Amino acid sequence: MSRESFQDLKPTIWIGKRGITNVMIDEIRRQLKDRKVVKVRWLRNTEVDPEEIAASAGAVLVEVRGRTLVLTERRNRSPGHNPRNI
Length: 86
Fold this sequence. Notes:
With 86 residues, this protein is α+β, with helices and mostly antiparallel strands. It contains three helices and four strands. The two termini are 26 Å apart.
């Protein structure tokens, strides 16, 4: 999926005034497993750390714009695979 297509993606997770919770992290994980890409939005009066959300969900933070972030599923690499070895 290209970066341009992230703009067309509708947010499927909304973070409210309670902020990020364990239930929300579990939902992000579930949606990542089903969709591979998840768009998350949050309220203006909510403090959110996008990198912390990605780390907690075991996802890759692709993009942050304003109060919106895009996460993708972390790809599993084979044990012997090292991208630096050519």
